[in-house]
Amino acid sequence: MLQKREKVLLLRTFQGRTLRIVREHYLRPSVPCNSALCPQPAACRNEGKLLSSDVTHYVIPDWKVVQDYLEILEFPELKGIIFMQTACQAVQHQRGRRQYNKLRNLLKDARHDCILFANEFQQHCYLPRERGESMEKWQTRSIYNAAVWYYHHCQDRMPIVMVTEDEEAIQQYGSETEGVFMISFKNYLDNFWPDLKAARELCDSILQSRQERENESQESHGKEYPEHLPLEVLEAGIKSGRYIQGILNVNKHRAQIEAFVRLQGASSKDSGLISDILIHGMKARNRSIHGDAVVVELLPKNEWKGRTAALCENDSDDKALGESPSEPMPTGRVVGILQKNWRDYVVTFPSKEEVQSQGKNAQKILVTPWDYRIPKIRISTQQAEALQVANTDFRVVVRIDSWESTSVYPNGHFVRVLGRIGDLEGEIATILVENSISVVPFSEAQMCEMPVNTPENPWKVSPEEEQVRKDLRKTHLVFSIDPKGCEDVDDTLSVRTLNNGNLELGVHIADVTHFVAPNSYIDVEARTRATTYYLADRRYDMLPSILSADLCSLLGGVDRYAVSVMWELDETSYEIKKVWYGRTIIRSAYKLFYEAAQELLDGNFSIVDDIPELKDLDEKSRQVKLEELVWAIGKLTDIARHIRAKRDRCGALELEGVEVRVQLDEKKNIHDLIPKQPLEVHETVAECMILANHWVAKKIWESFPHQALLRQHPSPHQEFFSELRECAKAKGFFIDTRSNKTLADSLDNANDPNDPIVNRLLRSMATQAMSNALYFSTGSCAEEEFHHYGLALDKYTHFTSPIRRYSDIVVHRLLMAAISKDKKIEIKENLLSNKDLEELCRHINNRNRAAQHSQKQSTELFQCMYFKDKDPETEERCITDGVIYSIRTNGVLVFIPRFGIKGAAYLKNKDGLVISCGPDSCSEWKPGSLQRFQNKIISTTTAGQSVTFHLFDHVTVRISVQALRCHSDTIRLEIISNKPYMIANTELFHQSSLLLKSELVKEVTRSMEEAQLAQEVKVNVIQEEYQEYCQTKGRSLYTLLEEIRDLALLDVSSNYRL
Amino acid sequence: MAGLELLSDQGYRVDGRRAGELRKIQARMGVFAQADGSAYIEQGNTKALAVVYGPHEIRGSRSRALPDRALVNCQYSSATFSTGERKRRPHGDRKSCEMGLQLRQTFEAAILTQLHPRSQIDIYVQVLQADGGTYAACVNAATLAVLDAGIPMRDFVCACSAGFVEGTALADLSHVEEAAGGPQLALALLPASGQIALLEMDARLHEDHLERVLEAAAQAARDVHTLLDHVVRQHVREASILLGD
């Protein structure tokens, strides 16, 4: 059945000799054609995605088209694309792995109607290369031949268009076969897709930039940058330790000058370097762009430079810098790039005035990326003029094509327009693109996989599932506690007394994996999204709403599938005696909201009228049910306190994230902050979830020691704590950072009774010093690295929110496999291998980071919009109280508790004048000088007046917005007085003092009322998070709490430690 | 440039085979008249010639004779023109010695040596073209040659190699696949009983995967058996026609 052919290759060896290689090549009578039109699908053995039959034609791109115009072929509007194997191999060999992987992903993506046809293995399609025939000619001939075969294979029912760039081929084959047309790619777009303007524009700009590049290489200017070294030299250099490999990180605030290379893997150990390597200036950076994997050569020690500690123009963020400013650090230069991680960039065209100054070189425009870290990009396009005029007010997406050593700036091409500058939708789209988040509505194919639940055709529990699942509907009192109006309830709780007197605590999580089969379309989509994205005013769901808000949501009074973890606890000591995992059917009896649960807990039963489930009952049965419920909530709280106390003893941290939420009214205008009371119930629910996560982590790790997905939070580096220690010392506190236990305790003790904000700031500094919590596969890590520093647990994972996190879906599958393994049942599902899981974890971690960044950026966007319409001179809200938390050579960093904003305030302005405060404590700019000390900065005017700013001093600041055309707007702070701002809003801060943890441990044994009092003054963040819920409708508090942790951990991200 | 993709997303290998498919096997028995038994095999582009003499008296030093069974003496050599670059391969280099020993081990397990005490069986194998899986080709050729010589054996010995790429076991590796450097396993099987005559692997492979790779190699060896069996029957039919029975 297989036919053997031989392929002769002539290769040149490294020594320059020619080597004749004979390779076998097997042909087969049938190769999957993957078309819905196939007359013998059985013979073709088609499986997976099929080319739809309802298109007007199939299009087959020539190899050259695939190589150059892949991004256009990625348009989902283009349907019925057949990629020939010959073309794919050409991409693989000539365009490198990155491009090839893009093609592979495209083929795998169910949303795109395109397939691969393995023409070279089909006996009628394969054409041997003739003697003297060029590779290019042969490739075109093969593809054409395969196209003809394909046309006949589909019984001439579907016309085929082959698009090529080869004019000769069009001449030669153009009219050879009826039904198979051959035209150029540009022609094809013009004729077949006249409406697809975006694709045509993209095509033009690609064409243009390619021509430019060709011209340029002929011209050969003087070199702006040294050439990159060849790959072999780099690899050898890395091995021998001469070069160092790492990821380039550009300093956002000094993008032109400073970049750092974070070391990767083994190279850091070999070279004995701990810190990052400084890359000073664009020349040394040698055409690498933020995020690239680069190879660096260290400069001799006498050329090492120090980093700058002065505040500069766009220094809006804070950075956790410990070192003194001038201490030189390892400095290097980039000698080669291993992997270019270029993505889509949002840019702004220069305004008209700027263009004129750029000269009349009309074909090229320098555009400014939104991200400060990206250099300006040169766009050469024929539509320059048109684009220029049309786009000055718009945000535009471009891609970088190349960066020749002869060119100061990289060359790119125009892709599409996003939206108007300053417009909310445009700015949000910018944030999404910059974080590489793509959220298109779910496709039809994906929705087809979804179960139906309509009034005519309601969804029911199937009898088969009833057989295999444990039925808790009759036996357990299951209820959920969520924020008011929540739609996607993914966790419920239950507690009851067993016959033997022990207690049974249950956590029931929505069984998402029942509906989402591995590798189904919806699964693939969820995996790409990896998480639900929450922006300040909207959210992008990971799963379609039929699942997230209906069938997976554990609503009250309906039957739902769940995955449960149930513990048997000792009646009095609450020691865990037994644990059970499994699939269940539950019917949640109550869908409580937090306030109601808290009222019940407090013994205030007037709230009963707000609980719909109890409304319609008669007095007596209502009383019975109520007692039952109150008992359960009370018991739960009790258990949670115990667990919490136990964890606190091990050193769990109370972290502080300084994220503020904005409240919007209907018109999307920013409202005010309404502080909400944090409740103990929040803590209770969160604690139960942490417990469930912990036990599931243990279970899956035991069953699959090499391929379980867990979450780790590595211990922080001690050196990053130095700033925290210094700051605390300024206030007379000592922070012991040796372990999480000592850190937690000393943070509790570092409490200034007069100023609760000090503690908050110290906690947020501690948070910044820590690294991010990450998902990982247990096969690729040593066991001692598994532990979770912040939660003080040896193993932790995410299990409780499968509706909004893909990691939880994976964990659910692992847990199911672990259960069937215990029962000695063959594991049905194909579990991910360690390598695949590691890859997946990296993807999820990346996506999470993107989600957090986008959330933060959108919040900042809203903050700016809030202050934008307010006149800082007159508006009362713009003047507020701030706390100094870091001191730099020319200014201070200030935290504003009222809005949760952190920012820089200058003590020396651009004209070199320094701030001075008169006796009325109003500030003025006067000539003078600044003197910086460890914990204070003194500004002295020439007249001899001086004013001192200490760490943790309260000052009055004025908030204004600096509008920027090319970048996002930024908040500016201006110190207008060195006295605290006097206004009655101080009562807002009273509650932000923290509950001491040691107290909490004692509290456990105390009565409920007392505990309640103490809990009321819990972390301020909760209320802010809670605000957020009110806008987006539908997140359980636990998820919010989890997010606080995540967000808290996020603050340490790259730019702070630079 | 991107490295070679040994197994594409569509499940094809570099040469167009699927993961479990063998290369084309062609074989002939009785290619030389002077020898007691001989055979020639082509497994894809790997070509091997095997010649068997014996059982006969011990040649050389008499002390080598074994009192209870026959001595199996195997020699392996490969032609200077067997690879892409012409290269002289003197007798007795490490590689061919090792291969000789492996062959000896394999055939001592298969030949009923106790039937011929104090005698010697010589198996000479020459590789004419090497394109991956030389050990397997040598064993298969030698099996046919031993059968041709009429030496009693327990069963055919069928050998095949298998590798492991991206979670999939590949049967019968070609030179390109071997050169990629993944783990490679060589298996010689007595197909009727399923006993293993020789199993060899140099590279590291996770224990969890071993079973799958082994199964792929065993299945391939069984497939080889079907083919060799066919060749032997064909040969016997031709011989009996010539004899005029």
From TrEMBL, chain B:
One of its GO terms (molecular function) is mRNA 3'-UTR AU-rich region binding. One of its GO terms (cellular component) is nucleoplasm. It is found in: Cytoplasm; Nucleus, Nucleolus; Nucleus, Nucleoplasm. The keyword Transcription does not apply. Keywords: Acetylation, Cytoplasm, Exosome, Nucleus, RNA-binding, rRNA processing. Residues 21-152, 155-219 form the Exoribonuclease phosphorolytic domain. The keyword Cell inner membrane does not apply. GO terms for biological process: defense response to virus; DNA deamination; histone mRNA catabolic process; maturation of 5.8S rRNA; nuclear mRNA surveillance; poly(A)-dependent snoRNA 3'-end processing; positive regulation of cell growth; rRNA catabolic process. Component of the RNA exosome core complex (Exo-9), composed of EXOSC1, EXOSC2, EXOSC3, EXOSC4, EXOSC5, EXOSC6, EXOSC7, EXOSC8 and EXOSC9; within the complex interacts with EXOSC2, EXOSC7 and EXOSC9. The catalytically inactive RNA exosome core complex (Exo-9) associates with the catalytic subunit EXOSC10/RRP6. Exo-9 may associate with DIS3 to form the nucleolar exosome complex, or DIS3L to form the cytoplasmic exosome complex. Belongs to the RNase PH family. This is Exosome complex component RRP41. It comes from Sciurus vulgaris. The gene is EXOSC4.
